[in-house]
Amino acid sequence: MIGVGVIGVGAAALTGHLPALSASERFELRALLDARPDRLEAATARFPVEHALTDRDAFMALPDVDAIVVATPPDSHAALAGEALRASKHVLVEKPLSRSLAECRSLVDLSQRNGTRLCVGHEKRFHPSLERVRALLEGDAIGEPFYCGIHWASAAKLDPERFIPEGFRPGYEWRWRDPSVGGGLVQDHLPHYVDLVRHWTGREPEAASAYCLNVARDLLGRPPAESVWEDLGLVVVRFSGGLVLRFETSVVGRSLSPIWSLGAGRGEWTEYGYLLGTGGTLLFDLLPWDSSEHGRIAFWQVARAAGEDVGWAYVEQAEPIRRAGGAAAEMFLAQAGAWADAIEGRESRIAGGLDGAVCVAAVEAAYRSVETRSEAPVEVDLQVPA
Ligand SMILES: NC(=O)c1ccc[n+]([C@@H]2O[C@H](COP(=O)([O-])OP(=O)(O)OC[C@H]3O[C@@H](n4cnc5c(N)ncnc54)[C@H](O)[C@@H]3O)[C@@H](O)[C@H]2O)c1
After folding, report:
1. How many whole angstroms separate alpha carbon 281 and alpha carbon 133?
2. pTM here?
3. Ligand 1 centre from 98 Cα, in Å?
4. How many CB atoms lie within 10 A of CB 306?
5. Edge to edge, what strands does the sheet with 244-250 contain?
6. DSSP state string for 256-308
7. Ligand 1: which residue has its CA nearest to atom 25?
8. Ligand 1 pocket residue status of 83, Cβ below 6 Å
9. Which of 40, 147, 202, 338 is most buried by a 10 A CB count?
């Protein structure tokens, strides 16, 4: 059993890491640290531990804690993960690994020097439906993928009082208001999908271009302090081999599923995507985060589209997920197992520090393209020749 402690007992810990680490046979949950005593009290009522602390130094010095999850907002990742690595703990940092590539590099350096494992919470690698997408790609279902379009969006910011579930408001507040987190929606969500494309295809991001809107500030008239960061982002990332990812993300409105609008219209957000390949197209539509049902996956194959057969097929899914917490519980538990493998020196599919750093590098490039464009806007030439 690996003695584990968790820093930051907010949404990611309560819905992901704590249920998974408690259920895992590889870990024993021994300690929690949070800056806020009220959060700590609420968390320990559900996940009792030997050490529930607000004192960071005391937490880092616990001799029965070998591994630490950092699940605080991104502005504290570098300091907390750095301290944990210096205390010779193995560390799993929630995405994004940190606010900047420079901070990520120093964490990677530190773990390499100390010989402790630095991993990153890119748990979508272990999502049952996204695992299935990976298997289909590996099985050559659509040939060589060259384009991936992904939509992750919610309408939470249009009416926060109604659309943010009870108890989750504080997590949204720092995302929207706090300048020190270092970024907005693009920083929050792009890392997941850069990681998935890398994990699925082995391609590396080479260039990024982005457009961002601040709808709450500019159209809804909210005070700038309430909407520091973008609330809609469109990012195009070019990967090695010419593969292009188009990622759109928003908290001011969402689309509906291309496959199954019932799934995408429910829950807090909509998440779907498609890949175009040299031999066909693959669509995936994820159901709500904690759904017991699997997401919908369909694909179209050039070779099959002949005669009566239009070429589309739905992927038959496994039985519903019986575990409480559904798909989210399943992927965090699988990630915990992979983390234990990495800690014990076994081969593991968990994202490492370098994987996390590459994703943050893509985020930086996207934001840099936004800044550069606003300094030197390029007008669209409407003098189209007759
Ligand atoms: N992988 C995922 O799918 C996923 C989902 C949600 C959040 N996240 C990530 O998890 C991290 C946390 O997000 P969240 O939504 O859980 O936030 P949250 O606001 O719900 O929780 C953060 C917790 O950290 C505590 N905290 C903040 N600074 C601290 C410090 N310096 N020391 C100790 N405690 C501190 C807060 O009091 C709070 O309880 C972020 O990096 C976010 O991007 C990942």
Report:
1. 11
2. 0.95
3. 12
4. 9
5. 205-213, 232-239, 244-250, 145-153, 270-277, 280-286, 296-301, 312-314
6. --SS-HHHHHSSS-EEEEEEEETTEEEEEEE--TT-SSPPEEEEEEGGG-BTT
7. 8
8. no
9. 338
> Which H or E run includes 52?
strand 51-53
Contact 212, 230 (CB under 8 A): yes
Per residue in 48-106, pLDDT tens?
A: 999 999 999 999 999 999 999 999 999 999 999 999 999 999 999 999 999 999 999 99
CB of 180 shorter than 6 A to ligand 1: no
Q: Which atom of ligand 1 is nearest the CA belonging to 8?
A: 24
- Closest atom of ligand 1 to CA, residue 14: 16
Q: Is the pLDDT reported for residue 138 higher than 90?
A: yes
pLDDT tens-digit series, residues 219-276: 999 999 999 999 999 999 999 999 999 999 999 999 877 665 554 455 678 899 999 9
In the numeric block, which tokens belong to residue 248? Answer: 């759109």
CA of 185 to the centre of ligand 1 (A): 15
Which residue, by CA, sits nearest to atom 44 of ligand 1?
12
List the end-to-end C-alpha distance of the chain, in Å, as a whole number.
74
Question: Six-digit token pair at 206?
Answer: 């080479």
Is any atom of ligand 1 closer than 6 Å to the C-beta of 36? Answer: yes
Single out the residue of 128, 150, 71, 157 nearest to residue 293, CA to CA.
128
Domains in the chain: ranges and CATH: 2-124+344-349 (3.40.50.720), 127-322+356-378 (3.30.360.10)
d(CA 38, CA 281): 49
Q: Which of 18, 40, 44, 94 has most ligand 1 atoms within 8 Å of its beta carbon, as the pocket-test mutant?
A: 94
Distance CA 199, CA 361 (A): 16
What residues pair up with 6 in beta bridges, in sequence order? 32, 69
Which range is least confidently modeled, 7-21, 196-210, 286-300? 286-300
Task: Determine whether the shortest distance from the Cβ of 94 to ligand 1 is under 6 A.
Answer: yes
Q: Is the CB of 74 under 6 A from ligand 1?
A: yes
